[in-house]
Amino acid sequence: MTDEDDDILRYDRMVEQALRGVVRKAVEEVKADGLPGDHHFYITFMTDYPGVQIPDYLRYRYPGEMTIVLQYQFYDLDVDKDKMSVTLSFNNVPENLVVPLGAITIFADPAVNFALQFQPTGEEGPDFDPEGLLDELDDEDGSDDDKPKDDKSGEVVSLDQFRKKD
Fold this sequence. Notes:
By secondary structure, the chain is an alpha+beta fold. It is built from three helices and seven strands, in the order H-H-E-H-E-E-E-E-E-E.
């Protein structure tokens, strides 16, 4: 931060942290109660962000950015103040993904036409803490026949079709 930055309140950063807290809270609620109704999450994140843990073949296939969908089959969903983790099936192979909340660039729930887009600042790393601001993110075949039907899974999709064209 420069001397000039010391003289201003960074509302942009405050809002960004508060909105990432909305993502955390939504994931917490799904962890506790499951996805209600038609709700499902599209979560786009930067694969090269510090702390992202994904298999090397996924990082190679999705350099820079990846989108997962939490809808029908996903397992071991967890979230804390810094990161979320989830196990998804890729070609019928379960893989655990760890995604820092600061790595998320888009969070959407198409069931209710809700989406948040974040501008990466590179300053949110491990000490990201929305708690103070908010008290109260393509699977090859999309199926996993060996898992119980009530478990949830995700898929990787491209959000390019939803982006505004210039």
